[in-house]
């Protein structure tokens, strides 16, 4: 990614943000993606740290766009200026092997 992009970030779960963050209107906000944010994983980490989501999202974040998950390994080159990214809490998934 060469030029910085602006993306809209929507934090879906009300419990993700603190009351003061919600009152500041941070549920819907803009984030600037600098060139060093190379992957979707980097973007998720930026959102995670910027909003101090360690307590509300101990397992991390799941980012999606237009109803489709953005894989963490994917390049941020898939994003365009003014895209809307939805951020949800990543929950524990238990896999049960049936033998």
Automatic annotation (TrEMBL):
What are the GO BP annotations of this UniProt entry?
spliceosomal snRNP assembly
**Gene Ontology MF term list:** U1 snRNA binding; U2 snRNA binding
An annotated GO cellular component: Cajal body
Q: What is a single Pfam family found in this protein's UniProt entry?
A: Coilin_N
Domain named Coilin N-terminal: residues: 21-86
The UniProt entry's coiled-coil ranges are none
Q: What protein name does the entry list?
A: Coilin N-terminal domain-containing protein
């Amino acid at each position: 990614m060469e030029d910085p992009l602006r993306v809209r970030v929507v934090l879906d779960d009300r419990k993700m943000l603190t009351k003061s963050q919600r009152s500041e209107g941070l549920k819907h906000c803009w984030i600037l993606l600098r060139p060093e944010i190379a992957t979707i994983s980097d973007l998720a980490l930026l959102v995670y740290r910027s909003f101090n989501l360690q307590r509300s999202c101990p397992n991390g974040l799941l980012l999606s766009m237009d109803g489709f998950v953005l894989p963490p390994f994917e390049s941020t080159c898939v994003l365009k200026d003014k895209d809307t990214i939805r951020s949800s809490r990543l929950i524990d998934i238990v896999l049960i092997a049936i033998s």
